[in-house]
Specification:
CATH topology of the domain at 34-220 in chain A: Rossmann fold
Structural class of chain A: alpha/beta
Number of strands of chain B: 34
Distance between the termini of chain B: 26 Å
Oligomer: heterodimer
Helix content of chain B: under 10%
Number of strands of chain A: 13
Strand order of the largest sheet of chain B: 1-34-33-32
Shape of chain B: globular
Largest sheet of chain A: 11 strands, mixed
Strand content of chain A: 25-35%
Shape of chain A: globular
Chain lengths: ~270, ~425
Amino acid sequence: MSNELILDASQIKRIKTYIKGLDENMQGGIPEGHIVLIHGSAGTMKSSLCFSMMYNEVLLNKRNCLYISLEQSYASILKNMVNMGFDMSKINIIYMNDLAKFGTLVKQINQNAGNLIITDIGCVRKQIKDIKVSENKSWLNVVKNIILKTAQEANVNFFTFDSLSALYTLSTFENPRMELFYFFEYLRDLNMTSLMISEESEDKANIFGSESFLSDGIITLRLTPFRRNIIREISISKMRSTKCNTDVFSFEFKNGSFYALYGGQNPLL
Amino acid sequence: MSILGGVLNKIVGGKSGKIVLQGLIDLGSESMTAPLCQDIDGDGEQEIICSTIKGEIFVLDENLKLKWKYISAPTTSEVERMFTDAQTGSSIATTPRVFDINGDGKKEILFGTENGDVFALDCKGELLWKYSTNGAVRGGINIFYVGEEKKIRIIFGNSDKKIYIFDAKGKLDSLIEIDEGIESTPIIIDGLIVFGTDKGRIQAYNLAGKMQWSTQKTGAKITSEATPFKFANGKSCFVIGSTDNSIYCFNTEGIMLWSFKTKGSIYSKIVLADVNDDGANEILFGSADNKLHVLSLDGTEIWDFESDFWIIGSPLAMDIDNDGQLEIVAGSYDNTVYFLAGDGSFVVDYVPGISGIVIQGGNYSDIPVSIPGNVIGKKIWAYLAPGIVIGCSALRNLVVVQTKEGKVLILKHEK
């Protein structure tokens, strides 16, 4: 874990959200090493926002990033992002869906070139459905091993986990809060800046509710009826080590960029 | 010794000397098991056997010099390894067992791993055989003889809800299907296989694999190995600890004779020793209530000793200072190895002649007819180890200590 003592706020390194109007309201972005929940219901653009952050980090800062999808396929993610106008030819994307070759492939990644590694666990699940997952063999371990190998071999230090909700349906947690605590501590030990997508359930409550206490930050996305429209909104519910504006902003995507607008005010329609 | 003399001795009697470090080695990996001291190669010198969470076996000589090291490479595929915890996937969770399984006059080392493999090594670290299961082998391996021919059988439990029984060459002899995973080490007592389950049952099967009796599910895992003993009437019994905070005493018919509740989980094997020299064994065990407990065989607590954190490993009863009396050695998660007087110490309510210690009301006799007061644990010495103390083992009158961080220490008493 990064245990360096910070003596000045300017020493805190941050990763931008690349949301125009939001980074300015949170001292420039998310502190490196933070575990941040990206929380919202279906259709709030959680995955798109996370992908956008990784895309820009790869493109502009040559950072190696990891996107782990438990359910949405690699093809579906890319199709969505291309349709939004992201030019995939500008970045190097490495697709991994074969656990048997994962260790070999990850060693071939250039540590400093800037790569977006996408691991499609949904595809892996289809391929290895015959493997018996016994009590001591869990999908959470698969996720942890992918993170560990990419961190060690490819210098990955920024990742998206899509999603915690899918993990809960895939794995049995005897003691959710404790197991989530150890998972988060595992990420902190690796100094991995982590975006954990958390889906809002129909009853508007998290399945376990522990994530919000264990995480370092929460960015909340929501759909709000306004007159005869549905508008997207974004707010920072929690961000440790950050002075942030907690106003609710309109969340818009236009001309290839995300915007946070009209903080604390009614949107102009 | 009269009661009065014994009382006075326990109050004022002290032991001299101190505990000092004789040697230390760093295994380089974390460990989950107590060390084991045995002469495995028959040269008259004991070896110290240690294991790590990376699946390594270290065999050291009495001076902590490495004799050999074995790395238990997993037989699972890369895909299967992705499903196991990278940090503990190959770990050895229970102290290896040593036994001469092939009758060559030297002892072999048997152990299981989190990956589900079981290994048998000869005394020089050469692999004799290994067997792969589908679960995790977290408990220990036991060895017993069957039939008139006294054939060796090797037995262990598995998280895949099976008891495995092998012959001495590593060939599977029989499998017993259980409803629950097993982390405890099975024992054989009166022809029964007795073990605890991950759901908190204590069960007994005959060697043909038929269940003879079972207790109710408590939901709290049993990880410890049962400790057998006989009462004066010759009846076989055993004691076993549970993570439901209790230890239980059963006879081999499945009738619970007594139980004793602590305030913390009990993970390790219970030790029997006559630590107060009264001619009967006492029951010694550590608990996650931070205490070492000493009970009589009927389950009555004689005394306890409280450390600053959990006592997980089994205690030792040994005479470290060669004075003819047993000391109890207990390692704690507070990084300390405690050396306690086997017979404890009195908290005196009143002793004739020295009544200034404590004044209490009542009628006194100058000749006490019963022990006046309560017995508590009496610390003689303590040694601060460089890490969490996982377990200890006796090397003659020395103590070998294993820390979680992978350090192995030899401690000795110095006058």
